[in-house]
Fold this sequence. Notes:
By secondary structure, the chain is α/β, with parallel strands linked by helices. The protein has helices spanning 4-11, 16-26, 43-55, 74-77, 95-105, 144-149, 167-183, 193-207, 211-223; strands at residues 33-38, 60-64, 85-89, 109-113, 120-121, 131-135, 152-155. It has a seven-stranded parallel beta sheet, sandwiched between helices. α2 packs antiparallel against α8 and α3 (43-55) packs parallel to α7 (167-183).
Amino acid sequence: xxxxxxxxxxxxxxxxxxxxxxxxxxxxxxxxxxxxxxxxxxxxxxxxxxxxxxxxxxxxxxxxxxxxxxxxxxxxxxxxxxxxxxxxxxxxxxxxxxxxxxxxxxxxxxxxxxxxxxxxxxxxxxxxxxxxxxxxxxxxxxxxxxxxxxxxxxxxxxxxxxxxxxxxxxxxxxxxxxxxxxxxxxxxxxxxxxxxxxxxxxxxxxxxxxxxxxxxxxxxxxxx
Length: 224
């Protein structure tokens, strides 16, 4: 539960323009789609995907860290990491399984982005189902485990000599396409009222400098 009085107190530190922007962005946020990064070792690639997720309104990014640590470059992410909900899987060597199981429990189908023989072309992808798009490590692509457990495969049509795209470019093309179709569909893709309230509260807190001290001061005054 959000402490409404505390939120109102925090809002006093924000401009009306900032509060309006938060609410506008929340109206375009979705958890109908999620992004999964599997062992991305180049910080600029992981950061660019996080930035892309924010730009196209995808709230959740899941980072699997079996071999490599997922690092975000602030220079590339441009602050987008503050507004995205990130979950890292790094507890043991079976992080991919843990991540995919977690997503399935939340109702997602697992879609591996790879030029697999059975891949669906991007323009033919069914956006009505909740989907988690898995992007694999540079050069190698998604792991064999993801290929074995995926509910489907997705590829971007290519007609040139080069057979692959940089992961950040691939993510941008896919997310732009599927989110655009989603917003023009009848699918109930928006966040729930409660999800919006929680994110709004978190975003407000992240905007305020020394917010912990301010919160302590607020509760100290209540006790006085």
